[in-house]
Amino acid sequence: MRPYKSAINTQSQSYKDNFIQMSELVNKLQKYSQESLYQGKEKHIAKARKSGKLLARERIELLLDQDSFFLELLPLIGLKGKGFGPGGTAVCGLGLVSGRLCMINANVGTNRGGSIDKATLEKSLRMSEIAMENGLPVINLVESSGANLPEQEQIFNYGGIVFREITKRSRQGFPTVSLVFGNSTAGGAYIPGMSDYTIMVKKKAKVFLAGPPLVKMATNEITDDESLGGAEMHSNISGVSDYLAENENDAIRIAREVVAQFSIPKITQPSNLKVDEPLYNSEELLGIVPADIKKSIDAREIIARIVDGSRFSEFKANYGNTLITGYASIHGYKIGIIANNGVILSESANKATHFIQLCNQNNIPLLYLQNTTGFMVGRAYEEGGIIKDGAKMINAVSNSDVPTITIMIGASYGAGNYAMNGRAYKPRFLFTYPNSKLAVMGPQQLSGVMEIIQRAAATKAKIEYDEEQGKQLREYMIQQVENSSTAWYSTSQGWDDGVIDPRETRNYLAVCLATIHNQPIKGTKDYGIFRM
Question: Which end of the chain has fewer CB atoms surrounding its CB within 10 Å, N or C?
Fold first, then answer.
């Protein structure tokens, strides 16, 4: 497999201009990321410190193996919402604990008592989905006062999924370990109650379905926190707790011992342990990835900066050239890559369909690099069968069984989002670059379509089209689409697993590939009917 020879001129003015523009977007990402590190008001942090408690991120740091990575997921969910700020009241991600790849979910108890807003619930549901798909143990670091009651109508119905998924993972042999550092009340009591292993901290953990005030109201019984749901009661009497920890450090020590007993899948290792770095510096991605998505870029230039040795074996290189397909390795893991190089034509869709089938036949995971305005339109293309060819591609994407990863590196418009394995098609992981745009179509196109429709309606009604009102409506719609199609809006809604710095792509993919290899990879030969 030969290395790709880059054609990028890093001294050109266009490269330098783009580097500056992308750097500004990355700086905005870093600013938002800094905001997501918020762990509560200073007075609440001081109170926790005084009572001998660690902060959520400190607990994670102690839990992880020395020098382990921690790939945080959905750190900016809720960024543009009305909830508790970016990331909600939980820190979630992947890391190594006693040599075992685990999903870690830590309540931020110093931020609004760790109460669960809508964004936090959605994050927890996504974490559970990733753990189930990839056969991961889950470690919950619990300190939460339960659902945020003003949002209860948005939380209650779906909140039970968290409990259901604990038992479904357990059935599959993917255990859950819960460390209770503080409150875990009402429905939240089922988190430790349904876990495979539960560790409670003496004098700190409080686990009950109803606290003393509610018990008094319901039964007229007078009791206190400790005797009703304290760690010692649950360890000595109820049996809800399996381990009684002296303090938080002791609880984390016990958790590491528990995880050390789990079997580690042998298939987590890549087939090729000799890994060559790309020939080109990842810094160059800031000059290559288009800050303005209207500008085109050869996706091979991006591929060359994220794959081992910049080696890429292209499939059907001379056919359907608005879409690139081929094989590479990333950190020793073999992968098939499908990348847009413009609008999707019939030839491109057919090539992708063929390639997806080959990767399934050979049990090779797929990486999609999205940057497309969608499928080509027009009379000639309709007559040429663009619908049936696009349908074949979506059929293949939908029924593919090998694990997939999607990165939105630019535009993700219309059915192009579907054909390139968008969120609705359940990639194992999906990340976006800070320049990416996600919408039915671009703002200019959408406002233009609406103007044509309104003019036609005015003509049909035999009334004069109001030019000034039409202009104002166009400007309003352009702004609305611009605001709701940014990477920041998408990640705020939980439509991705995080916005990433393009320079970190290879590192993110390394962790994601290790994760998806946590279970055997098996493709399919079964598809729906291909319309010929």
Answer: C
CA atoms within 13 A on the CB side of 310: 15
CA distance 486 to 408: 11
Biggest CA-to-CA distance, the chain:
83
CA–CA separation, 92 vs 87, rounded Å?
Answer: 9
What pLDDT, on a 0 to 100 scale, did the predictor assign at position 413? 92
- For tokens 């959905």, the residue is 74
pLDDT, residue 186, reads: 75
- The answer to whether the beta carbons of residues 106 and 144 sit under 8 Å apart is no
**Which residue type occupies 302?**
I
104 φ/ψ angles, rounded to the nearest 5 degrees: -120, 130
Give the CB-side neighbour count of residue 414, counting CA atoms within 13 A: 16
Q: b or e along 456-473 (b: 16 or more beta carbons within 10 Å of the residue's beta carbon)?
A: eeeeeeeeeeeeeebeee
> CA angle, corner 315, sides to 309 and 318, nearest 5?
115
Q: Mean pLDDT in runs of 10 for the chain (532 residues)?
A: 94 97 98 95 94 96 96 95 87 96 96 91 96 97 84 83 94 97 85 96 92 86 90 96 98 98 77 84 98 94 98 97 97 96 96 98 98 94 95 97 98 94 97 94 74 84 83 79 89 97 98 95 94 84
Single-letter code of the amino acid located at 528:
G
**Structure-token match 């590196």, residue found:** 409
pLDDT at res. 270: 67
pLDDT of residue 477: 77
- Contact at 8 Å (CB) between 40 and 346? no
Q: How far is residue 240's CA from residue 191's CA, in Å, rounded to a whole number?
A: 11
3-state secondary structure 45-65: HHHHHHCCCCCHHHHHHHHCC
- The residues, any chain, with a CB within 8 Å of residue 338's CB and separated by 6 or more, are 323, 324, 325, 352, 355, 356, 366, 367, 368, 369, 420, 421
pLDDT in the model for residue 210: 79
Tell me if residue 139 falls in helix, strand or coil: strand
Structure tokens at 62: 């102690």
Q: How far apart are CA 305 and CA 503, in angstroms?
A: 9
Question: Cα 108 from chain centroid?
Answer: 20
Per-residue pLDDT of 248-264, as tens digits, reads 999 999 999 999 999 88
